[in-house]
Amino acid sequence: EVQLVESGGGLVQPGGSLRLSCAASxxxxxxxxxxxVRQAPGKxxxxxxxxxxxxxxxxxxxxxxxxxxxxxxxxxxxVYLQMNSLKSEDTAVYYCAKDLGGDSKGWDYWGxxxxxxxxx
Length: 120
Known about the structure:
Structural class: mainly beta
């Protein structure tokens, strides 16, 4: 079965950095794009970034462009999100999600999420 397991969340000060990991299993990792989506307290889901795993082409939302970097280690079936210059507004549960693939839009599998808290 498909499993996505996020890790790396925690407490960080404003301006600090954090690296999230998502370990994937149960599907051919390099055949699908992977995404990071977050949900701040009391707010809806916000897409942040996606990457085509086999060619490493990244895409970013304007809110995180220049601060966050998505990458993969295909040998480990793992996608990462390096977060720099963190703001209190970045506080959220961060989810890893598997893209539907091809020209389809959306995601069919999600991790359970990892909490990131940005506070002094």
